[in-house]
């Protein structure tokens, strides 16, 4: 089992656990009732732009590649029930930045 820790202002607010389910394949679980925020949200604190990616591993890859101001959505590109409360929870950190998704044709402007 691996885990990704979600921080806001240096404090852990959530943890995502990734494991192997016996029948389904991958299993993801977050702390029940914990605040949903972007992974790596503290990285954009003093930046005017941010790259928005699909998963924690994508975020880590961009960080390792030198692009330090990136965030990942907490629940991936899942189908069905979308929990988008992380947008409300992180709006203050996002609204003054130019944002780009990792899809090359999509640019988000604040």
Strand order of the largest sheet: 5-4-6-7
Q: Given the C-alpha coordinates, what overall shape results?
A: globular
Q: From N to C, what is the helix and strand string?
A: EEEEHEHEE
Helix content class: 10-25%
What is the overall pLDDT average?
80
Any idea what the radius of gyration is? 14 Å
What is the β-strand count? 7
Look at the helices and sheets and give the structural class.
alpha/beta
- Report how far apart the termini are: 37 Å
Looking at how many chains there are and whether they match, the oligomeric state comes to single chain
Unreliable spans:
104-110
Number of helices: 2
Taken as a percent bin, the fraction of beta residues is 25-35%
Profile the largest sheet: 4 strands, mixed
Could you describe the 3D structure shown?
The chain has 110 residues and is an alpha/beta fold. It has two helices and seven strands; from the N terminus they run ββββαβαββ. The strands form two sheets. Strands 5-4-6-7 form a four-stranded mixed beta sheet, covered by helices on one side. It has a three-stranded antiparallel beta sheet with strand order 1-2-3, with no helix packed on it. Residues 104-110 have low confidence and may be disordered.
